[in-house]
Inverse folding.
């Protein structure tokens, strides 16, 4: 693995190979295999940048990563990690991806559990509860791409604790003009329900847009599946022949 500098708290800098465990490791391996130099990637729900740093190294100077993290303290850590690693091909966007533009409220979890911050979900099965809400700015990925002059992307990774359907719905035009795009989504119904979403609706929507569903397995290789047989955490959606 590549070496990264990763600040996870204000007083803790990790100077060691970045380790991602469990299902995150499967996702990381798949992205290592799939992402190539020159690609354009959106990391929606970037947190402190665990995947952003890896993606930025993979796409290289000819590519770019747009990393969305709406919670200001975490976005500051994300920017810091990007600077620590000398990456000038990353743009940090301190906004939440959704299907509307404008003010929104973000449920914030305790320090150390901020990976669960969500536009709608305020509790987890792990007996974790949000400790409050903060105002953030939401944007459609379509609106952001239009304003930034982004005509296409190659990968959209969405992990935003239940609001994945809303983010993808707000990216329809961008997805339509990105014929080879791969979309990686977390599918977790308890959080989706709290966000007023449904993972079946998300899967159906992407199928209507011409995408097939795959699961990422231990070797980082995708395998076709249906939602009924899905037992994982992340699913990959690609148009047939897009790999």
């Amino acid at each position: 693995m590549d070496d990264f500098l990763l600040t996870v708290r204000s007083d803790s800098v990790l100077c060691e190979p970045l380790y991602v465990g469990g299902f995150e490791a499967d996702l990381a391996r798949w992205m290592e295999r799939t992402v190539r130099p020159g690609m354009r990637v959106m990391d929606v729900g970037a947190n402190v940048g665990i995947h952003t740093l890896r993606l930025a190294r993979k796409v290289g100077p000819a590519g770019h990563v747009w990393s969305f993290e709406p919670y200001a303290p975490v976005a500051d850590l994300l920017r810091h990690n990007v600077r620590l690693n000398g990456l000038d091909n990353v743009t940090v966007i301190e906004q939440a991806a959704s299907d509307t533009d404008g003010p929104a409220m973000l449920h914030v979890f305790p320090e150390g559990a901020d990976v669960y911050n969500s536009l709608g979900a305020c509790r987890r099965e792990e007996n974790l509860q949000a400790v409050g809400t903060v105002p953030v700015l939401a944007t459609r990925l379509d609106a952001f791409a239009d304003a930034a002059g982004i005509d296409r992307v190659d990968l959209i990774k969405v992990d935003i604790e239940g609001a994945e359907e809303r983010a993808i719905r707000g990216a329809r035009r961008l997805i339509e003009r990105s014929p080879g795009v791969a979309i990686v989504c977390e599918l977790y119904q308890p959080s989706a329900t709290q966000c007023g979403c449904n993972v079946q609706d998300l899967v159906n929507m992407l199928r209507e847009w011409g995408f097939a569903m795959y699961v990422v397995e231990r070797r980082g290789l995708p395998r076709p599946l249906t939602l009924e047989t899905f037992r994982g955490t992340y699913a990959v959606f690609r148009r047939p022949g897009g790999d």
Q: What stands out?
A: Residues 72-84 form the longest helix (13 residues). Helices lie at 23-34, 50-59, 72-84, 141-148, 164-169, 172-176, 189-194, 199-208. Residues 11 and 177 are 43 Å apart (CA to CA). DSSP finds eight helices and 13 strands in the chain.
